């Protein structure tokens, strides 16, 4: 068993033992093709809950580069396919790494708001999500994590249908365009969050 699969099995066990963990819409994760997973972000547990929900793809989440400053944690994150990113100034090499991961068949995990937003509110979507989707010719699956994160309480992972940005592949888009498209995905995440 690979390190990734071993850790994922621990994530699933943790989620089931300590939370009433429920996944709705797992069939909406395509088995192949370039794919980005986009979820809301309110807790440090979110990457665990999302990874545990996806059984048919290997996820490569994007994480802030500061997490890699601790050498032991950095090594673990690297073995879990986490892609370090400078949130203030993502360089061209990071963008290339993300596009490479998409081509290699990983489902790249992104939090559109770029950081944790606590409570019931949401932040603004950053341009990166749509940029990677368009440049990487990837569909985006919106995921809503619905929980108060209190131990033994319910956690619902609601996975919606993939969104295609194919109509934009050949267009010249501005930063504002990318932000707007990312915002459209976040709206789907928010709608499902508030409905449930």
Describe this structure in words.
- This protein has 196 residues and is an alpha/beta fold.
- Helix content is 38%, strand content 19%.
- The protein is built from six helices and seven strands, in the order H-E-E-H-E-H-E-H-E-H-E-E-H.
- It has helices spanning 3-18, 46-53, 71-79, 92-103, 128-135, 175-195, and strands at 20-24, 35-39, 59-64, 83-85, 107-110, 139-147, 154-159.
- Strand 3 (59-64), helix 3 and strand 4 form a beta-alpha-beta unit.
- The protein is globular.
Task: Briefly characterize the structure.
This protein has 196 residues and is α/β, with parallel strands linked by helices.
How is the topology of this model organized?
Elements: H1 3-18, E1 20-24, E2 35-39, H2 46-53, E3 59-64, H3 71-79, E4 83-85, H4 92-103, E5 107-110, H5 128-135, E6 139-147, E7 154-159, H6 175-195
Parallel strand pairs: 1-7, 2-5, 2-6, 3-4, 3-5
Antiparallel strand pairs: 6-7
Helix pairs in contact: 1-2, 5-6
Key features of this structure:
196 residues, alpha/beta, seven-stranded mixed β-sheet, 38% helix, globular
Number of strands: 7
Series of secondary-structure elements, N-terminal to C-terminal: HEEHEHEHEHEEH
Mean pLDDT: 94
Compute the separation of the termini in Å: 36 Å
Query: What share of the residues does DSSP label as strand, in percent?
Result: 15-25%
User: How many DSSP H or I helices?
Assistant: 6
Uncertain residue segments = none
Q: Helix fraction?
A: 25-40%
Main structural class: alpha/beta
With strands numbered from the N-terminus, the spatial order across the biggest sheet is 1-7-6-2-5-3-4
Q: Characterize the largest beta sheet: strand count, sense, and whether it forms a barrel.
A: 7 strands, mixed
Instruction: Estimate the global geometry from the Cα principal axes.
Output: globular
Question: What Rg is obtained from the alpha carbons, in whole angstroms?
Answer: 16 Å
Domain Phospholipid/glycerol acyltransferase: 35-148
GO molecular function: long-chain fatty acid [acyl-carrier-protein] ligase activity
EC number: 2.3.1.51
Family: Belongs to the 1-acyl-sn-glycerol-3-phosphate acyltransferase family.
